[in-house]
Amino acid sequence: MVDALGLGLGIMLTLTVVILHFSKGTAWQPAEDIVDDVLEHRAATVPETDFPEPMSRSIGGGGGGVGAVVSGEAEAEGELEEGEETVDEDDPSSIPDDEADVYEVEFVKEGETIEVKENETLLDAGEDEGWDLPYACREGQCISCGGLITDGHAEEYVEHHTNQMLGEEELSDGYTLTCVAYPVADLTLETGESP
Ligand code: FES
């Protein structure tokens, strides 16, 4: 004889399994990815900079910063091809040796007259002779290398590539900065002379 209680429990269990099988569950959804929203919000609220953002602050997780640096360098290099050199046409030192004119420069205190190319400074030429001539910055920004061209207005005899010290009056008196002075004529020079 069939146990009525056991039969009832069996039917209830079967019905429970069938109901669970056809139910829709809890409808749980994974959380939405908000990383891009957060980065865009931060990009909108952090002030712009003049330099490439570090990769940790770039949207998309990096690569952009490095790209910006590389493209910036390429821009700074302009149209230069590999191996190509820039030529500053205002810089007498860029005149090729085989095209440079040569002038006679008398160094009075040293007691010698030497040949100096137009692409060489008076200071360099004197040092090449082994003379211990005065200088400091070698950029036309002090007066340590000062000399006196005894022939007349300095700029009739030398071209100063840079000159941040001598005014028109000193130049007309013949003063020169030998570290940035390239000869354009024969001249007589007294070294160690400043206005
Ligand atoms: S060494 Fe400074 S101007 Fe020549």
TrEMBL record:
Source species: Halocatena marina
Acidic residues compositional bias, start-end: 74-97
Family per record: Belongs to the 2Fe2S plant-type ferredoxin family.
Alphabetic keyword roster: 2Fe-2S, Electron transport, Iron, Iron-sulfur, Metal-binding, Transport
Disordered, as annotated region: 66-97
Cofactor(s) of this protein: [2Fe-2S] cluster
Any Pfam family the entry gives: Fer2
Residues making up the signal peptide according to the UniProt record: none
The keyword Metal-binding belongs to this UniProt entry's keyword annotation: yes
Molecular functions (GO terms): 2 iron, 2 sulfur cluster binding; metal ion binding
2Fe-2S ferredoxin-type domain boundaries: 103-195
Record-given protein name: 2Fe-2S iron-sulfur cluster-binding protein
